[in-house]
Amino acid sequence: MSNPNIKGNGTLISEKRTTTSYYKITVAGFFNVELILANEKNITIKGEENLLPNIKVEVIDQVLKIAAEKKINTSVPAKENKL
Predict the structure, then answer these.
(1) CA-CA distances (angstroms) from residue 41 to 22, 30, 48, 56?
(2) Other residues' Cβ atoms within 10 Å of the Cβ of residue 51
């Protein structure tokens, strides 16, 4: 039986993703979220490079939804993984 969890590789990177306008945020999972009010329509995700492709960011009905598509295990302290 294969392991459905993805283990982080320890290499931290930042990735910017573009969004549409939203008025509410929902987060599913263990993420540190830092909100900064700005006019830009994007978010920056910081985490392990092999885990970031599994973080889903989408706006549905003006709600920003952030969730992991698969179970992930980080190799670095949780405080280093930020949205």
Answers:
(1) 9, 23, 23, 16
(2) 23
